[in-house]
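hi got a favour to ask and not much time before my train. below you get a single protein, a line of residues and a line of whole numbers that encode the local backbone shape. could you go over both lines and see whether the tokens make sense for that sequence. a few lines back from you is plenty, here it is:
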Amino acid sequence: MSAEFDFAVARIERAARDLPEIEASTSYGNPSLKVRKKMLCRVKDADTVVIMCPLEEKQLLIEAAPDIYFEADHYRGWPSVLVRIRLISEEELIHRLDRAWRMQAPKTLVKRRVSAAGSG
């Protein structure tokens, strides 16, 4: 892997550090993050990360920030969005990974996290 590729991996790992039960893994031969074996995101190339995203949010993101979010033909109709990793802010990346985690994590794990956050 190149140093640029490592940059993308480091950014997603740092942004997901507070999410429960995250594991570093691979998907299609590239580094990914998963929650209980379900993918949250994967590094596509040195500049692009694929993040799971509800379909109803995907088009809104692309329209609101086309410099950051985009889609390729391969991903049409699939609940994921392509992200230019060097252009997304840390805060937005954390938010996107949190949304992906809530989408992919088992409902019992999501409820446990919400309950724990409410009791603090």
User: Anything to note?
Assistant: Strands lie at 22-27, 30-35, 38-45, 48-52, 69-70, 80-84. The two ends are 41 Å apart (CA to CA). The chain has one domain: 3-88. Residues 3-88 form a domain with the Aspartate Aminotransferase, domain 1 fold (CATH 3.90.1150.30).
